[in-house]
# Entry
Amino acid sequence: MAGTFWSLVPPIVAIALALITKEVYSSLFVGILIGGVFFAVDAQSGFTGFLDHVFSDGLIKQLSDSWNVGILVFLVVLGTMVALMNNAGGSTAFGDWAKKHIKTKVGAQISTICLGILIFIDDYFNCLTVGSVMRPVADKHKVSREKLAYLIDGTAAPICIIAPISSWAAAVAGFVSEGENGLALFCKAIPFNFYAFFTIGMMFLLVIMKFDFGSMAKFEKLAQEKNLGEEKTERTTKGTVIDLIFPIVSLIVLCTVGMIYTGGFFASGEDKRNFIDAFANSDASVGLVLGSVAALILTVIFYLVRRVLSFKACMACLPEGFKAMVPAILILSLAWTLKAMTDSLDASKYVAGIMENASHVKMFLPALIFIVAGFLAFSTGTSWGTFGILIPICIAVFPNMDDPLRIISISACMAGAVAGDHCSPISDTTIMASAGAQCEHVNHVSSQLPYVIHVVAVSFVTYLVAGLTQGLGIVASGLISWIVGAVLLVGSLIVRKKIGK
# Structure
């Protein structure tokens, strides 16, 4: 079963069950068990081998992985920061400010998108910060939690994958094993990352056109009919907008500093790197932990000096923040374990074989790579893992650095990975978006899936055009592709609105 289509069956079953039963915990666990059975059958290790693989090599190993532990710590600290901002009255004060300045439902949604675009450092940070800040505003203007989760998710991975200074840029740069500067290659690929740009464009269009389709339209209609209510989070009358802005700015600045610190920016001698190289070589997990903990300490001191919270009240936010993150942590732990099952069945070798066998039709490769990357990321729930599998293959298939298809194909790989990650129920970012919006996870997945598929279809055609026109040169190909893609996106939404679907 290893290295064949069977290796993708466990995540496919888990995803199908989650969408059918609308219960994600048991669905993920069933997928894990199937992966353990497949591995035990291949290894002929029997029941004991099955148990060892699922728990020792799976769940326990994933929860002891330093990267994963760092992400979990980061989530707990962020949950604590959100609790602090709420209890200090910062979120309520911002809500009062927003009531005066954001007067329409369209304004609330546009503000959410713009804030998501501004927070481009990391997708986890983006999801939880935007969610905590904009949720009261969205509730006031009766934006459904499902729509809010989509707006958050649509500006998490898509904005990170086109931002040169982000944890995603650092990850992609790390998968370039040749002498070429990985970050420079990432920057060259940005203009061809059609899915990311079209996703952001589609969000603005949907909001401006006041149009929704699929199950999202039903959730939006329900939100208009019922009173979502304002969150009762204020426990002090002393909080002001600065009590929200200061922690968020501290998080952005200190998380950036933490990431370049892990990359060697503050090192001495030969180990010292400039800002760009330090970011490209950073350890995002450790950097985010360092930055968030420093921001947490600074925020506590700030609140104590301003006397908006007592020290005891600040410390009470630690377990409160942890409890708020428990559902996300549980889903993440199961999703990581499911990925471990998939990895142990050599799913990457199966996908790599498909790609190498298709190398003789090079002009169609960008579109094919986009779809394969999307399917792999959707099945495994990881964009970064997809980068690691497919980017080296793209480089091997197109060794000439001046070949336009090289840049287009690498862009297609990144775009497809983000597309698959964007709609996968077992994706970290999708889980974080649900947590940030405090939306039922399965509702978020099912409501945004038609939107993702719409942009995927437009992007697929655009990559076909890019591959067919690459002989005209990288600039001409890019220009033609952009025009075709933009016309398709706008035209298809107008048609969809007219027919009411």
About this structure: Residues 352 and 393 are 7 Å apart (CA to CA). The two ends are 41 Å apart (CA to CA). The chain has 24 helices and no strands.
